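Let's practice the habit of predicting before peeking. Look at the sequence and jot down your guess about where helices and strands might fall. Then scroll down.
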Amino acid sequence: MLVFVTGATGFIGSSTIPHLLARGHRVLGLTRSETGAAALKKLGVTPHPGSLQDLESLRSGARQADAVLHLGFEHDFSRIAEVSALDKNTIEAMCGVLEGSGRPFIVASGTALLAPGRVCTEDDDARPVSDSFPRSSEQTAASFITRGVTAGAVRFAPSVHGREKQGLVSYLIQIARQTGVSAYVGDGSNVWPAVQGQDAGELCALAVEKAEAGARWHAVAEEGVPLRTIAEAIGRGMGIPVVSKTPEEALAHFSWLSHFVGLSVPASSKKTKEKLGWQPRGIGLIQELDEIFADAGVTP
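Done guessing? Here is the structure:
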């Protein structure tokens, strides 16, 4: 297949492309810069000039492809309404040219906030759209199923981790660097799921190959890592104090991340593993963090 990938030069896109190529597929990668185009060419990918704002470039890429993997998203949560509207427009543009073709369209989504306080599964519906949560990636893609698009979703854990990025944990590290303390909320027993980037990339490739209309796949290797354990790994690695913040103190310390950092959002990938034969093999989040700080020469 020729797979059109948005977010091709991003962390998850870069982890997915080698799996697609290794499985014999060709890749058309969206990029908005010559630097990105050069990087894609080195991987054996055909660059497709454009951006998420350039809807015609998205239509053109989707029109050429046998399948679309939409991994691009502007992760600026301070503008969540704006970036969510942009994402809706991009999905509608690409799915519009796929109508009636039966071609796969796989959209990136997340497991966080689907079922706070309990383990969410692939059977859980997408979170309803609201003023506080305006993102509608899954719902927008799914609306094209009756119009002849084989739309599905890969839901990523809050921490898709590697040496360069660690998902939402990257923001915890930034805040720790800025404030001089590594913090969690309350007793820190709330948990976030995690998955290593290469494992997430393999799942994306499988989701494209085995596309099912309405399927939801969970990119989750660790069902839940306690936030206190994460904070301790950051504190240990950076050599800074590890402290607890009350819910009242969270907003001032964590800013927009305060909406997530106190939540317990465990997630299962049991159905994904059984149906797709996906078996995560990467290292765990805490080991990855320890190795990152060790490689950087940071000691307590």
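How did you do? The longest helix spans residues 80-98.
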